[in-house]
Amino acid sequence: MSSNGEPTCCEVQDSIPIIDYSLLTSGSANDHSKAVQDIGKACEDWGCFMLVNHGVPETLIQEMMDMSDAFFNMTIDEKLEFEAHGVLDPIRCSAGLNLVNPNKDMLWREYLRLIVHPDFNCPHKPSGFSELASEYVKRTRAVAMELVKGVSESLGFEASYMNRELNLDAGFQLLAINYYPSHMEFDVSRGLMPHTDHGLLTLLYENGVPGLEVLRDGKWVGMGGVPNAFSILNSDHLEIFSNGKYKSKVHRTVVKDKRRRITLVNPNGPSLDTIVGPSSRLVDGEKRLPRYHPMKYSEYLECQTELIKAGKHAFDEIRIPI
Ligand SMILES: O=C(O)CCC(=O)C(=O)O
Ligand SMILES: [Fe+2]
């Protein structure tokens, strides 16, 4: 931290944990329990990790990157058809409107946010987008659900516990595609302000252009740079459910590279009607007091959207002072 309490500038470190997904899913009990242990340690100590050997084909990811590029290269008028409204709208596109934001300090990006589970939504153009995105989110969802099982075991529960408690079969999954234009296209500060994500785990894939940073011990640490790996971040509802054990990861994006950056981001959460509080298995009336008030997931999303405008966080509403 600097003397005024603000985090100091980014430091690149290579010690963000790396988890080998193939060990988690391997038939070997030893490999599996080592992976579960590593996931638990990464979630508790770092709140994030890189995931390698995840089995999502590189060609599929590359096609998604190319398709996303094609989407954002449509005209503003074409994109306006998918313009953002409410937080629970199935398709929300920023359509470059941030550019006219009077706040010159604002970091800039375009985004497209799709609700892809339990119902799948996608723009009807460019042609083939919907089929491709449907395949992509099917694959990333399978990875996320396997990771949640690993997280569940790492907390000392059976693998299916979190799925059952949080109704993940009807879980709310988004595909958010972020587009930070090349420096040549627009000479603006490109990035995303510090925040945490809602849901349990966020999976993020970048197109080889760095920018993601996570806050660790008061310093910004660059994340990414591992070939063909997903960046995985703890999110708000993992912190709530684990009663504060696995903290939601504060992250931001600062794009210094001149090339355009595209990220495919999947927040994975409980079903919208699930009331999420600390797991009853992690609290008791004596020593382990609940640290968060339960709140319905859909209400959390709505309240978070409102609170951001006031520079606050939904945690401010539900955290119980100790
Ligand atoms: O694009 C990135 O680097 C980060 C995106 C992100 O944090 C988000 O969409 O919530
Ligand atoms: Fe995020």
TrEMBL record:
TM stretches of this protein: none
PROSITE patterns: FE2OG_OXY
Keyword Repressor: no
GO molecular function: metal ion binding; oxidoreductase activity, acting on paired donors, with incorporation or reduction of molecular oxygen
Assigned keywords, A-Z: Iron, Metal-binding, Oxidoreductase
Pfam name, any one: DIOX_N
Family: Belongs to the iron/ascorbate-dependent oxidoreductase family.
Name of the molecule in the record: Fe2OG dioxygenase domain-containing protein
